[in-house]
């Protein structure tokens, strides 16, 4: 008999994934499908990073690596965070993890006792409810609305936190799927709610290098927040290193010390040659990051032009991340209906809004992850389809 902790992981994870799997099955059967589904940069990891990975592996960095992360990498991550946020950060605030996903799990393990309520903002990244459940906590959604730019309302968060006695609030800005960048006032409001309720703010900032409009603010930098904020970071999106599984958690020293024990008993760290490559990625060449982000910026601008030529599919105004969030409510179709029909008729796969929570049923998420000409063609086909 399997534990309910394991069997409940998909619960609340959102519908609509059948479209993703249908697209994959078609592709496996040899049918060409234009996939605009998952958040995976189409650029491969930079050859210089791979060269360093190879060098490190052949130099023998293939044994067990020190669990919290090699000191030089922890220092480099701490320096990056200090420089970008102004919050003094040392290696003792850093745990190197196998991707941001593992850091999300670790943060909820640190913040929540079994059965505690953990708040998340909807629409949300697809694994959030399952990650919270895996950590033994109970996810509670707080909906956001398109007319408020998908920003959470701190008063609503306060109500929900009181009602549930929450131990943590998970925020994600720049946001997947909406692309929203939360303004300072919103983050200040949320920080105040977390302080008043004496709970943790878990800030998922894996898209912090993909800022197209406005400014990214890490809530850890707000007054008094370094003590109650845990930040998720990753090289998956910033350096096209999704498959290398390398990310980090930033937290107060005491939390990191406890989480090193968690890592010792679960992941046992990240391969040394991957850590060496990550160190290279973070310290050797400032051009690596903008090089990965640039195609998304370009395609987003291209999309704005294409979508301005029609008035059926709306583009949700966004500030960052590698997606378009499209408003298809004018078609009268749900996200699932639209995405399924688009796949059947045009072999174009997008994510229905429902995959990110039921309140996003009238929306689609389109990843900016195929070459410009094919991307423009697919988006033009999508808008033409919406008009029929
Ligand atoms: N957080 C968000 C919002 C994401 O979109 C993703 C990946 O898509 C992750 C975390 C996990 O990324 P990784 O585990 O590859 O670092």
TrEMBL record:
TM helices/strands, residue ranges: none
Catalytic activity: L-aspartate + 2-oxoglutarate = oxaloacetate + L-glutamate
Cofactor: pyridoxal 5'-phosphate
Protein name: Aminotransferase
Coiled coil feature spans: none
Record PANTHER family: ASPARTATE AMINOTRANSFERASE
Ranges for domain Aminotransferase class I/classII large: 33-380
Species name: Alloyangia pacifica
Enzyme kind, highest EC tier: transferase
EC number: 2.6.1.-
One Gene Ontology term from the biological process aspect of the record: amino acid metabolic process
InterPro entries for this protein: Aminotransferase_I/II_large, AspAT/PAT-like, NHTrfase_class1_PyrdxlP-BS, PyrdxlP-dep_Trfase, PyrdxlP-dep_Trfase_major
Family matches, as Gene3D superfamilies: Type I PLP-dependent aspartate aminotransferase-like (Major domain)
Record's keyword annotation contains Transferase: yes
Family recorded in the similarity comment: Belongs to the class-I pyridoxal-phosphate-dependent aminotransferase family.
A molecular-function term among this protein's GO annotations: L-aspartate:2-oxoglutarate aminotransferase activity
Pfam families in the cross-refs: Aminotran_1_2 (PF00155)
Alphabetized UniProt keyword annotations: Aminotransferase, Pyridoxal phosphate, Pyruvate, Transferase
Family matches, as CDD domains: AAT_like (cd00609)
